Amino acid sequence: MTDNKRIVLAYSGGLDTSVAIPYLKDRTGKDVVAVSLDVGQGGESLETIKNRALACGAVEAYVVDARDEFADEYCMMALKANAMYEGVYPLVSAISRPLISKHLVRAAHQFGADTISHGCTGKGNDQVRFEVSIASIDPTLKAISPIRDLALTRDVEIAFAKEHKLPITQTEKSPYSIDQNVWGRAIETGFLEDPWNGPTKDCYSYTDDPAFPPVEDEVIIEFKQGIPVKIDGRDVTPLQAIEEMNRRAGAQGIGRIDLIEDRLVGIKSRELYEAPGAVALIAAHQELENCCLEREQHRIKRDIDKRWAELVYDAQWFSPAVRSLNAFIEETQQYVSGEIRMTLHGGRAVVTGRRSDSSLYDYKLATYDSGDSFDSKSSNGFIDIYGLPSRVAAARDVRFGNGIEVPDNAVE
């Protein structure tokens, strides 16, 4: 442990955060601890990233393979909540930030830091997600952003890297800003900032073109209390379920999203997303809930799901409100167990079959054939009582001359 003279840096291994290590040291006089998490984003190994951080001047490098933790505790909660911001976006970045923040705080405690640094700009959502999450876990820690707070622009970064002979290789900068993990991929900036411009094929990586799909793919997903546990009869962990559905749904072009999005900071932003596994799994989970949730419980949960997605998007993962919603969502999953059969093809994941021992679907009540156990005579009294308030109100309207006019369609 040191005497609280360190900064913990969320480190990706790229130019921005590699330059930030010596830059922060020069500007603040504090040693830097680099923190890197694998949440399924692919690319370089954690060992490579760790060695680069140390070579750039970090005094410690904290690296974690967090893929299972991310899938188990964050993606599965989003799945149980059918989380789709603005009805379409499955919270690719928003659910990874609380996990990264938790490890940043853990590293700060472990290595004696009093400040946490991240690489966000002043225009995005992630600056809020990191700093609110950090403050929710340990409000004594300070948070800074070199790009936002210390004028660390790209030309300054490149000149600084050359001057300090940092061991990083400059490649041509991508025209897009990309954030990805096992739950999906977010693509923005560049020519996409003009909302009239259509996406080009180089925007996509997780999905193939849905206009030219392979033969349709039938999959059976088994859930236990809201979590996928088998695919086509094979046991899977949450991470394995997501990875397999990314591969299979991605091959069919499922999960491409093009959205004008309302950001937390108050601006509208054009965003592309790829989330093949998330989109397919949420569609299957929602259909199983259709079978297994009681009507009023289901209606409330649909409202809760929408609010949960908004709150988590808005940096409230650790808030009392989300904790309370989580308790409701978890209780609803008690009977969400069974199998969903889906056909994946040409950009669509279509449910074709459902079965569950805990389903509330009762064939004898639903059928119109012989064996029907529904007592239709009961409907007479039900309609009479159910319609009573409307009849009483209608009679009052007639007394005051406000009755509903019925058009005269008689032919002369």
Overview of the molecule:
- With 412 residues, the protein is an alpha/beta fold.
- It contains 14 helices and 14 strands.
- It has helices at residues 15-28, 46-55, 67-80, 96-111, 126-137, 146-149, 154-163, 238-251, 276-292, 295-313, 320-332, 363-366, 378-386, 388-399; strands at residues 6-10, 31-38, 60-65, 113-117, 142-144, 177-181, 184-188, 217-224, 227-231, 234-235, 256-262, 268-274, 338-345, 348-355.
- A five-stranded parallel sheet has the order 3-2-1-4-5, with helices on both faces. A five-stranded antiparallel sheet has the order 10-9-8-13-14.
- Strand 9 (227-231) and strand 10 (234-235) form a beta hairpin.
- Helix 1 (15-28) packs across helix 7 (154-163) and helix 4 packs across helix 5 (126-137).
Summarize this structure briefly.
By secondary structure, this protein is of the alpha/beta class.
List the helices and strands and how they pair.
Blueprint: E1 6-10, H1 15-28, E2 31-38, H2 46-55, E3 60-65, H3 67-80, H4 96-111, E4 113-117, H5 126-137, E5 142-144, H6 146-149, H7 154-163, E6 177-181, E7 184-188, E8 217-224, E9 227-231, E10 234-235, H8 238-251, E11 256-262, E12 268-274, H9 276-292, H10 295-313, H11 320-332, E13 338-345, E14 348-355, H12 363-366, H13 378-386, H14 388-399
Parallel strand pairs: 1-2, 1-4, 2-3, 4-5
Antiparallel strand pairs: 6-7, 7-12, 8-9, 8-13, 9-10, 11-12, 13-14
